[in-house]
Amino acid sequence: MPVPEVQAVARQAAAFFMVLGMAAAQAQTAATPAAGGPSAPARLALCAACHGADGNSALALSPSLAGQPRVFLENTLILIREGLRPIVAMKGLLDGVSDAEIVALSDHYSRQAVRGEPAPRDEAAFRRGEALASRNLCGTCHLPNYAGQQQMPRLAGQRGDYLAQSMREFRDNKTQGRDTQMNGVLRGYSDRDIDDLAHYFAQLR
């Protein structure tokens, strides 16, 4: 990564840590890292490296957290921390993180603006995805603007590659620690159907 980009990421991370620290203070909690484990700032730096300092991921297959519903983020982080949703890249990163810290972290990311994926629109794929989303009533749970609600994740502006990977895992029944309702919803979808849906959602804001 060029030096100016490194410096920009460092500045973003510093601002992120400051905001998170303020949120944690308001929650009247003190960070208590696991014995022998990394410090809270070190864990957050790793988080920002994959998901972006402002929650908008620039890393392939790494989800954006910006604008996700707070409850969804809280539930997901707790499931990961407790080992109920195993993610290799996240293993151990939430060890020793308190519930109050998770609440503060989730609140911070839920308030971040969604920049969305900069990939150019494929108009034909977008329209096919739009028709599929409408026909299958995706907006019933995820809201008509696909911003998500409560424990239902935001789809609008999420990385397309991450969405496609997740939907294939649901379709192929290869998920653990996630809502199994989606396994049935996506059963029988072709790879193109999934790619079209992912492209459609990723292009929304």
Secondary structure layout plus pairing:
Blueprint: H1 3-26, H2 40-51, H3 70-81, H4 99-110, H5 123-135, H6 138-142, H7 160-171, H8 181-185, H9 191-203
Number of H- or I-type helical stretches: 9
Task: Give the helices and strands as they follow along the chain.
Answer: HHHHHHHHH
**Fourth-level CATH superfamily of the largest domain:** Cytochrome c-like domain
* Arithmetic mean pLDDT: 83
Q: Count up the domains.
A: 2
The overall strand count is: 0
- The CATH architecture assignment of the largest domain turns out to be Orthogonal Bundle
Walk me through the structure.
The protein has 2 domains: 3-110, Cytochrome c-like domain (Cytochrome Bc1 Complex, Chain D, domain 2), CATH 1.10.760.10; 123-203, Cytochrome Bc1 Complex, Chain D, domain 2, CATH 1.10.760.10. The protein has helices at 3-26, 40-51, 70-81, 99-110, 123-135, 138-142, 160-171, 181-185, 191-203. Residues 3-37 have low confidence and may be disordered. It contains 9 helices and no strands. It is globular and about 45 Å long. The protein has 205 residues and is an all-alpha fold. The chain starts with a helix and ends with a helix.
